[in-house]
Specification:
The chain has 212 residues and is an all-alpha fold. It is built from 9 helices and no strands. Helix 4 runs parallel beside helix 7 and helix 5 packs antiparallel against helix 9. The longest helix is centred in the first third of the chain and has 23 residues. 28% of the residues are buried.
Length: 212
Protein backbone atom coordinates (compact mmCIF):
# COMPACT_ATOMS: atom_id res chain seq x y z
CA UNK A 1 0.00 0.00 0.00
CA UNK A 2 1.32 3.42 -0.93
CA UNK A 3 2.37 5.64 1.95
CA UNK A 4 0.46 8.93 2.20
CA UNK A 5 3.02 11.73 2.39
CA UNK A 6 0.73 14.17 4.21
CA UNK A 7 -0.04 11.59 6.90
CA UNK A 8 3.68 11.08 7.47
CA UNK A 9 4.23 14.85 7.66
CA UNK A 10 1.42 15.26 10.19
CA UNK A 11 2.93 12.52 12.33
CA UNK A 12 6.30 14.26 12.09
CA UNK A 13 4.74 17.52 13.30
CA UNK A 14 3.33 15.72 16.33
CA UNK A 15 6.81 14.48 17.24
CA UNK A 16 8.87 17.54 16.35
CA UNK A 17 6.52 19.94 18.12
CA UNK A 18 7.20 18.14 21.39
CA UNK A 19 10.82 17.24 20.68
CA UNK A 20 12.48 19.45 18.05
CA UNK A 21 15.66 17.32 18.17
CA UNK A 22 13.85 13.98 17.79
CA UNK A 23 15.67 11.40 15.67
CA UNK A 24 14.28 10.29 12.34
CA UNK A 25 13.78 6.80 13.78
CA UNK A 26 11.30 8.22 16.28
CA UNK A 27 9.48 10.11 13.55
CA UNK A 28 9.29 6.98 11.40
CA UNK A 29 7.84 4.98 14.28
CA UNK A 30 5.21 7.66 14.93
CA UNK A 31 4.23 7.54 11.25
CA UNK A 32 4.08 3.73 11.28
CA UNK A 33 6.78 3.33 8.64
CA UNK A 34 10.40 2.23 8.52
CA UNK A 35 13.37 4.57 8.61
CA UNK A 36 14.17 3.49 5.04
CA UNK A 37 10.69 4.44 3.85
CA UNK A 38 10.92 7.80 5.58
CA UNK A 39 14.26 8.45 3.91
CA UNK A 40 12.87 7.43 0.54
CA UNK A 41 10.05 9.96 0.92
CA UNK A 42 12.17 12.75 2.43
CA UNK A 43 15.93 12.41 1.91
CA UNK A 44 17.13 13.98 5.12
CA UNK A 45 15.94 16.05 8.04
CA UNK A 46 16.10 19.38 6.19
CA UNK A 47 13.94 18.05 3.36
CA UNK A 48 11.42 16.73 5.88
CA UNK A 49 11.16 20.06 7.69
CA UNK A 50 10.80 21.94 4.42
CA UNK A 51 7.98 19.65 3.30
CA UNK A 52 6.18 20.20 6.61
CA UNK A 53 6.45 23.95 6.03
CA UNK A 54 5.05 23.62 2.52
CA UNK A 55 2.19 21.47 3.79
CA UNK A 56 1.38 24.09 6.44
CA UNK A 57 1.28 26.82 3.82
CA UNK A 58 -0.93 24.74 1.51
CA UNK A 59 -3.34 24.02 4.35
CA UNK A 60 -3.49 27.67 5.39
CA UNK A 61 -4.09 28.71 1.77
CA UNK A 62 -6.88 26.14 1.59
CA UNK A 63 -8.38 27.57 4.79
CA UNK A 64 -8.37 31.06 3.25
CA UNK A 65 -10.11 29.64 0.17
CA UNK A 66 -12.68 27.69 2.19
CA UNK A 67 -13.46 30.76 4.28
CA UNK A 68 -13.84 32.91 1.13
CA UNK A 69 -12.03 35.71 2.96
CA UNK A 70 -12.42 38.10 0.04
CA UNK A 71 -16.24 37.96 0.21
CA UNK A 72 -18.95 39.57 2.30
CA UNK A 73 -18.84 40.87 5.85
CA UNK A 74 -15.28 40.72 7.14
CA UNK A 75 -16.18 39.60 10.68
CA UNK A 76 -18.20 36.69 9.29
CA UNK A 77 -15.30 35.86 6.95
CA UNK A 78 -12.92 35.83 9.90
CA UNK A 79 -15.16 33.45 11.84
CA UNK A 80 -15.23 31.16 8.79
CA UNK A 81 -11.44 31.34 8.66
CA UNK A 82 -11.18 30.37 12.31
CA UNK A 83 -13.28 27.25 11.68
CA UNK A 84 -11.23 26.38 8.60
CA UNK A 85 -7.77 27.04 10.09
CA UNK A 86 -8.07 25.53 13.58
CA UNK A 87 -7.94 21.87 12.44
CA UNK A 88 -4.43 22.55 11.11
CA UNK A 89 -3.32 24.79 13.97
CA UNK A 90 -0.41 22.47 14.77
CA UNK A 91 0.99 23.08 11.28
CA UNK A 92 0.64 26.83 11.83
CA UNK A 93 2.52 26.42 15.10
CA UNK A 94 5.30 24.62 13.26
CA UNK A 95 5.44 27.37 10.63
CA UNK A 96 5.72 30.00 13.34
CA UNK A 97 8.33 28.21 15.40
CA UNK A 98 10.72 26.41 13.05
CA UNK A 99 13.72 28.64 12.47
CA UNK A 100 14.98 26.68 9.47
CA UNK A 101 11.97 27.78 7.44
CA UNK A 102 12.88 31.45 7.77
CA UNK A 103 15.99 30.87 5.64
CA UNK A 104 14.06 29.33 2.74
CA UNK A 105 13.25 31.91 0.07
CA UNK A 106 10.51 29.85 -1.57
CA UNK A 107 8.80 29.32 1.80
CA UNK A 108 9.05 33.03 2.51
CA UNK A 109 7.56 33.90 -0.88
CA UNK A 110 4.57 31.60 -0.32
CA UNK A 111 4.13 33.01 3.18
CA UNK A 112 3.99 36.55 1.81
CA UNK A 113 1.16 35.55 -0.55
CA UNK A 114 -0.94 34.12 2.30
CA UNK A 115 -0.28 36.93 4.76
CA UNK A 116 -1.19 39.45 2.04
CA UNK A 117 -4.65 37.84 1.74
CA UNK A 118 -5.06 38.06 5.50
CA UNK A 119 -3.91 41.67 5.47
CA UNK A 120 -6.49 42.47 2.77
CA UNK A 121 -9.24 40.93 4.92
CA UNK A 122 -8.43 43.17 7.87
CA UNK A 123 -7.99 46.22 5.69
CA UNK A 124 -11.42 45.61 4.15
CA UNK A 125 -12.87 45.17 7.61
CA UNK A 126 -11.44 48.50 8.70
CA UNK A 127 -12.96 50.15 5.65
CA UNK A 128 -16.30 48.52 6.49
CA UNK A 129 -16.11 49.89 10.03
CA UNK A 130 -15.84 46.38 11.50
CA UNK A 131 -12.26 46.27 12.79
CA UNK A 132 -10.46 48.85 14.87
CA UNK A 133 -8.63 51.42 12.81
CA UNK A 134 -6.12 52.33 15.51
CA UNK A 135 -4.59 48.85 15.07
CA UNK A 136 -2.83 48.39 11.75
CA UNK A 137 -4.08 45.70 9.37
CA UNK A 138 -0.53 44.34 9.17
CA UNK A 139 -0.39 43.89 12.95
CA UNK A 140 -3.85 42.30 13.06
CA UNK A 141 -2.69 39.82 10.41
CA UNK A 142 0.41 38.81 12.34
CA UNK A 143 -1.47 38.65 15.64
CA UNK A 144 -4.18 36.44 14.19
CA UNK A 145 -1.73 33.93 12.73
CA UNK A 146 0.25 33.85 15.97
CA UNK A 147 -2.95 33.11 17.89
CA UNK A 148 -3.74 30.23 15.53
CA UNK A 149 -0.23 28.94 16.21
CA UNK A 150 -0.83 29.36 19.95
CA UNK A 151 -3.97 27.25 19.64
CA UNK A 152 -1.85 24.53 18.04
CA UNK A 153 0.68 24.58 20.89
CA UNK A 154 -2.04 24.62 23.55
CA UNK A 155 -3.81 21.62 22.06
CA UNK A 156 -0.55 19.67 21.75
CA UNK A 157 0.30 20.37 25.39
CA UNK A 158 -3.18 19.50 26.63
CA UNK A 159 -3.97 23.02 27.85
CA UNK A 160 -6.94 23.41 25.51
CA UNK A 161 -9.49 20.86 24.35
CA UNK A 162 -9.80 20.65 20.54
CA UNK A 163 -13.58 21.12 20.78
CA UNK A 164 -13.03 24.49 22.50
CA UNK A 165 -10.33 25.75 20.14
CA UNK A 166 -12.38 27.59 17.50
CA UNK A 167 -14.58 29.31 20.08
CA UNK A 168 -11.57 30.33 22.19
CA UNK A 169 -9.71 31.76 19.22
CA UNK A 170 -12.67 33.66 17.77
CA UNK A 171 -13.76 35.16 21.07
CA UNK A 172 -10.29 36.18 22.18
CA UNK A 173 -9.27 37.73 18.88
CA UNK A 174 -12.54 39.43 17.98
CA UNK A 175 -12.91 40.69 21.54
CA UNK A 176 -9.89 42.87 20.91
CA UNK A 177 -10.11 43.48 17.16
CA UNK A 178 -13.74 44.52 16.65
CA UNK A 179 -14.35 48.22 16.48
CA UNK A 180 -16.10 49.71 19.52
CA UNK A 181 -17.66 53.06 20.13
CA UNK A 182 -15.61 53.42 23.32
CA UNK A 183 -12.31 52.35 21.76
CA UNK A 184 -9.39 54.49 22.91
CA UNK A 185 -8.01 57.02 20.50
CA UNK A 186 -4.71 56.20 18.82
CA UNK A 187 -1.73 57.39 20.86
CA UNK A 188 -0.59 60.89 20.03
CA UNK A 189 2.74 61.11 18.24
CA UNK A 190 5.68 61.69 20.51
CA UNK A 191 7.06 65.25 20.60
CA UNK A 192 10.34 65.73 18.80
CA UNK A 193 13.37 65.03 20.89
CA UNK A 194 15.12 68.16 22.23
CA UNK A 195 18.20 69.24 20.34
CA UNK A 196 21.21 67.97 22.24
CA UNK A 197 23.67 70.58 23.48
CA UNK A 198 26.54 71.34 21.16
CA UNK A 199 29.87 69.80 21.99
CA UNK A 200 31.83 72.39 20.04
CA UNK A 201 34.17 74.45 22.24
CA UNK A 202 32.84 77.86 23.18
CA UNK A 203 34.49 80.72 21.29
CA UNK A 204 37.19 82.71 23.09
CA UNK A 205 35.77 85.79 24.79
CA UNK A 206 37.57 89.07 24.57
CA UNK A 207 38.49 90.65 27.88
CA UNK A 208 36.10 93.26 29.14
CA UNK A 209 38.10 96.48 28.70
CA UNK A 210 35.59 98.54 30.69
CA UNK A 211 36.44 96.67 33.86
CA UNK A 212 38.80 98.73 36.03
Amino acid sequence: MATDRDTVLEAAVGVLSRRPTAHLDEIARAAGISRATLHRLFPGREALIREIGLLGLRRFAAALDTAAVEDGDSAAALRRLVDAAVPDASLCAFLAGENQLYDDDSINDLWEVQIARLHALFLRGQQQGVFRIELSAAWLSEAFFDLVAGIGWSIQDGRLAPRDAAFSLAELFLGGALRRSDAPAPPAPLPPAPTPPSHHPAPDRKPDTDTP
